[in-house]
Amino acid sequence: MAFPRRRPAAVPFLLFCALAALAGTACRRAEPRPSIVLISIDTLRSDRLPAYGYARGRTPSIDRLARDGVLFERAFAQVPLTLPSHASLMTGLLPPEHGVRNNVGFSLAADRGTTLAELLRAGGHATGAAVSSFVLRADTGIARGFERYDAPEGPERPATETLKPLLGWLEEWRARPFFLFFHLYEPHTPYEPPADLAGSGVHPYDGEIAAADRAVGELLAALDRLGLYDEALVVLLSDHGEGLGDHGEEEHGFLLYREAIQVPLIVKLPGGERAGERVRRSVGLTDLVPTLAERAGLAAPPGLPGQSLLDEDADARKFVYSETFATFIHFSWSELLSAVGDRFHYIEGPAPELFDLDADPGETTNLIARERRAGADLRAFLEPFPRQLEAPAEADPETLAKLGALGYLSGAAAPPAAGPRKNPRDELPRMSKVLSGIRLVHERRYREAVEVLRPALEQEGSSAVLGWEYLARALDALGEREEAARARAKGPPLSDTQAALPVSAAMRLLDLGRSQEALDLVRRDLKRAPASADLLMVESRALLVLGRPQEALASAEAAVAGAPDKADPHYQRAVVQLTLGRADLAEADLRAALAAEPRHVQAAKALAVIRFRLGDRDEARRLLERVLELAPGDPDATEGLAALRRGAA
Q1: Within a 10 A sphere around the Cβ of 18, how many other Cβ atoms?
Q2: Which CATH number is 598-649's, of 3.20.20.140, 1.10.10.10, 3.30.1050.10, 1.25.40.10?
């Protein structure tokens, strides 16, 4: 699959708005402008809610919104993955347009559409967001347009913690129109509901849904208390569903059946308008931007594929688009595309499938041979959509570690051989043991994970890259560091676009004092990805430990050339320059590292040492105080400040 260049930047919406305003038409506000609350419950499939007919659920808060609002019975996400789905939700663009195709290696670029927050902020709304998962961290681009954006320090946090800043903003902004985005990570795996919501006969996934509902109830109660609920526009939805074993997928991301892409969507309008109404036609999350723009009296950005959810007179859209490229990125299997109409659902892949949603909601009978006309129409709708994929960016090991803690796969498979690609549904059973082992690692059941993964990895295939890395993580957690290093070294080379796994393996070998093995391992993968800054940095570190500083400098310089705007390559070159006695050159690199990443603790400490040696005690003190702000209790900074105080005395 080719990786084309980015398309030219579109005209930014704010410029469009300003130009159109000269004509006195666009961006004119409707009064009164409602405050808007957007609630996104991650990984919530619609058929596990009482409002959608599920008998065993306990969701009084969501039930209240369904009674007070308009419920869309057939709403579909554009991607069964958190980051790309929220990119579509926030921009109104389809994935081929906004360019975010996976949780790892992609971000929402500034030239890819206008976000809902940018649109509403330009129209006068205060904007704030609080998210529960690292996957929606600010540097993904999802934060564009938010005046305040609160994300967890670690991989995730409970919804009750995420809610706290939002409640404070409500108090502050109660007298003006606002847009609040509340993202909850329950019920994403691992399913660990509170004790009072678990128990005999309760599926843990349902228990986590109940926990999410409880947090939603806290937010609704705050709106009630402040007198804001009745006149607010409240939207509740999910970014994607969950497999739960249907069609062979336990979680999500690889398949496009209804359980993965059909999501709840409820829109509570101000003043009880259209309360209790249910809409049956198929809609997409891309319809939210034009809907909220219309209700805020703003012109939606031009060229969006969606339409207002609330336009009763508009013709129903013909079809809704969805996709997954995670299958291709991680395993070199075929990508899948999906088109949903008001009756039929078509999934395009190596073995196309067509389902009648009315007669067969469980999607058990493939009608592709019988309903040829319907299949041809849906296939024709998908034909113009590009199958090309922009190259994923390299992710640093810390980012991958946090995403891995959330259950997200890391690592891209090697490019597939020429010819037809494999069907993900056919491959999932073969991969089931490896995926089960990976899931056990995510659930921190490390001994069980080792027992599952070791025999599963005797099979060859593209799963080996991920499998060996997750086996190594489990062994690391069990304290078996030598075994973990051997497992990482067994993993085959990765694609040119992702070097994180060999970096992790080589760094572990360096920790164990096996520097030559680390160098050999990283050089193996540099043959495939010679410009990888992460691989070059590890090569530089290994060479430095082996007493070859000039070669280490060459590797560090190549890393800086490949990633001049990143902090770590500059820091690594500074370390080599210090080894060579070139403090002035090291200082320049350390300042470049801190300009790129002001929170880079190691660069700040190294620069403090240089400034102290040059007699600049004031800057040394400021740098060490900054280190302690970023890393309270850091022993180097604590000792350095103590020495400075003793010297001053």
Answers
A1: 13
A2: 1.25.40.10
